[in-house]
Amino acid sequence: MVLKKLTWKSILPGCLKSESSSYPEPKQICSQRLSISDFSNPGSPISFSDLSSSIFNLHVFALKELRTITQEFSKSNYLGEGGFGAVYKGFIDDKLRPGLKAQPVAVKALDPDGSQGHREWLAEVIFLGQLKHRHLVNLIGYCCEDEHRLLVYEYVERGNLEDKLFYRYSAALPWLTRLKIAIGAAKGLAFLHEEEKPVIYRDFKASNVLLDSDYNAKLSDFGLAMDGPEGDHTHITTRVMGTEGYAAPEYIMTGHLTTMSDVFSFGVVLLELLTGRRSVDKNLPNREQNLVKWARPQLKDPRKLDKIMDPRLEGQYSTEGARKAAGLAYQCLSQHSKSRPTMSTVVRTLEQLLDLTDTPIGTFVCIVPTEGKIHGGVEKKGNEGKNECDEIKNGNKCEGKEVGIKEKAGCEHNQRGRRHRRRAKSLRNRAVYSDTALYKTLGTGLYFPRN
Ligand SMILES: Nc1ncnc2c1ncn2[C@@H]1O[C@H](COP(=O)(O)OP(=O)(O)OP(=O)(O)O)[C@@H](O)[C@H]1O
Ligand SMILES: [Mg+2]
């Protein structure tokens, strides 16, 4: 095994300018992946000379460069905002830096008043700097100047699954596309869980699944990710973090975290894909607000299942496939973590559903936007032209609660009122952005295959 001698100085270039005399002892690190625990003291004067770029294959950008490529973080480049901060589209090429592949990027800037900070930024850099996979978003580089913390990712064309699945502005996702997305996301999680040092993702939810132009799923947001238990340990114990409606019950109750906590969250997203309902929807009657509580008892009964399937699918799905996917979701959502399947079993089970003979194939959907309205299929969908979405209403109503558990989209992160208003505004912008983007892409009435 190749042993590499790394010092704290050598880990992150361009970061933490102040150097102190009290460096931790140099560490002997083998070619194994570096962990967040190798950086357990966030105040450590990690410096920037002497980088071993073979470990962190990342570009270090100057703030000035990122300002340039996002046109000063202009509104027209704004993609959205989450707990970390705002995200902007930009473009890089070798004029910016020799050797850079010309490509669009997404630049995420830490909001200094937000709920996340250096620790989450560092987790992203450490995990995504080392983990490369088709179903994980590619981190291209970062910026760490004074108090500024930014991340530069590949730009993922279709944005996140939450928008695609729930916004009325988006055309309904066909059955096979949903399956493809579920399989891609499951492969991303399986990869993390099967690493030599397993990674627990901890924040699996629809808004963290990005979709490329071919609907390949890519997991994003590693700010909450953690290394799994080592040696004889069965779990790690940690503060409960995550998003309401997605976190596993045993994790919420005890703070005990395992890869099976991710499997539960995957089950919730699978349920969202099947039903077209959000994991938590405060606009529904009380007993229907929590998706898992409402849907789980109905998953095993084929007659009941038909009734809870997403009406936007208009019956265009494989009956057997839906039944099997529902059975799988049921297992993933088991109260007993040990009864849940591993993610590689999930991948195998879902892949088999692609071959079912009763799967509807290749019907076409025509999307012809008209002023203020977007119509899916041939029929006009009456309320799709509404300017205000339900999420914005949620954002204004949100009261925030439960330390560490983020409220669902729209009522952001149990933060102060200011943050809620900002999130509501951000969502409003997102809705406008999606509308414009859709219009640009589909404005001439192009035909899109259903899968
Ligand atoms: N690499 C990317 N390519 C394209 N769009 C992106 C990319 N990364 C993030 N976005 C978009 O930026 C917006 C904000 O994303 P972000 O992950 O910061 O927040 P979130 O997932 O909505 O919330 P949370 O903080 O709870 O994860 C989303 O609309 C997302 O689709
Ligand atoms: Mg996210």
UniProtKB/TrEMBL annotation:
Gene3D superfamilies for the chain: Phosphorylase Kinase, domain 1 (3.30.200.20), Transferase(Phosphotransferase) domain 1 (1.10.510.10)
CC annotations in GO: plasma membrane
Record domain Protein kinase: where: 73-354
Enzymatic class: transferase
Protein's cellular compartments: Cell membrane
Residues annotated as signal peptide: none
Recorded GO MF terms: ATP binding; protein serine/threonine kinase activity
Coiled coil: none
EC id: 2.7.11.1
Keywords, ordered alphabetically: ATP-binding, Cell membrane, Kinase, Membrane, Nucleotide-binding, Serine/threonine-protein kinase, Transferase
Keyword S-adenosyl-L-methionine assigned: no
InterPro entries assigned to the protein according to its UniProt record, in alphabetical order: Kinase-like_dom_sf, Plant_Ser_Thr_Prot_Kinase, Prot_kinase_dom, Protein_kinase_ATP_BS, Ser-Thr/Tyr_kinase_cat_dom, Ser/Thr_kinase_AS
Record: residues binding ATP: K108
PANTHER family per the UniProt record, alphabetical: OS01G0588500 PROTEIN-RELATED
Assigned protein family: Belongs to the protein kinase superfamily. Ser/Thr protein kinase family.
Role, per record: May be involved in plant defense signaling.
Protein's UniProt name: non-specific serine/threonine protein kinase
